[in-house]
């Protein structure tokens, strides 16, 4: 991409982010090169506190994959910038960096370049527990056999469509197949009512992943929420009253839960990031964690987030 084109895209995104609060995705500084380390490296002094998750002890802060795959959940321009910045070398770097802070689990998806990145990370000696989501029509037994995740869940977009269409039986059957493999099985969703329904029906699942912002409402649902109005980009609306509803259902189940998009996909301004983490961890159970994607183009978000979480959970 020519410099003029890059500068135009970056300036456009900066202006847009500034209008709503750029949060951790701000692009005020030029993108920097990040060398990918080979090997695990020394542990940082700060370690993210752990939670029991099945047979493993994992950090309550889990490394999310969306920025690495170029999914900004903001707009196409910003997604393209993420995709361009995250070469495979630059993807390896935050994975090793995260591991050094005790972030020893990775939220994996079957989309984007994630499969290739994960294979390289393993080949270089990287070690993380894999919490994988799948949105494909592939046989989950085959996927588990090839991927060997620690835990495997049905991806939230697929689940929400099934919920809206009244076909949640397809999700339940998928979970039964995963259960037969012996791997932890779960369900992801953006809708608190999905978790409530599954709990009421007593599904045989081990965990839930819940987006704290309900971004899969359809147009009719948004009109009800917004008094008849319908803004642009309805799939990327984040309203402040949503998180409390998801946190409530997470507290009501005894099963482990992972909250995601706790920073509203970068819409939380820098000054509110620590409070968003604090709200999340004070709103969920001690056996719950969070998925957080990180985009270290201008600052060390891995270190910053790990220190915030460590401070909240240890009282430091």
Draw up the topology in text:
Elements lengths: L2 H18 L29 E4 L2 E4 L1 E4 L11 H10 L2 H13 L4 E5 L4 H10 L5 E6 L5 H8 L3 E4 L1 H10 L2 H14 L2 E6 L2 H10 L5 E5 L7 H7 L16 H11 L4 E4 L12 H11 L5 E5 L7 H14 L2
Parallel strand pairs: 3-10, 4-5, 5-6, 6-7, 7-8, 8-9, 9-10
Antiparallel strand pairs: 1-2
Helix pairs in contact: 5-7, 6-7, 8-10, 11-12
Give a written overview of the molecule.
- The chain has twelve helices and ten strands.
- By secondary structure, it is α/β, with parallel strands linked by helices.
- The strands form two sheets. An eight-stranded parallel β-sheet has the order 3-10-9-8-7-6-5-4. Strands 1-2 form a two-stranded antiparallel sheet.
- Helix 8 runs parallel beside helix 10.
- The radius of gyration is 19 Å and the shape is globular.
- It starts with a helix and ends with a helix.
- 44% of the residues are buried.
Summarize the structure.
The chain has 316 residues and is of the alpha/beta class. The protein contains 12 helices and 10 strands.
- How far is the N terminus from the C terminus? 45 Å
Helix content: 40-55%
Mean pLDDT: 89
Major sheet details:
8 strands, parallel
The ordered H/E elements are HEEEHHEHEHEHHEHEHHEHEH
Put simply, the count of helices is 12
CATH architecture: Alpha-Beta Barrel
Could you give the order of strands across the largest sheet? 3-10-9-8-7-6-5-4
Q: What's the structural domain tally?
A: 1
| Radius of gyration, whole Å | 19 Å
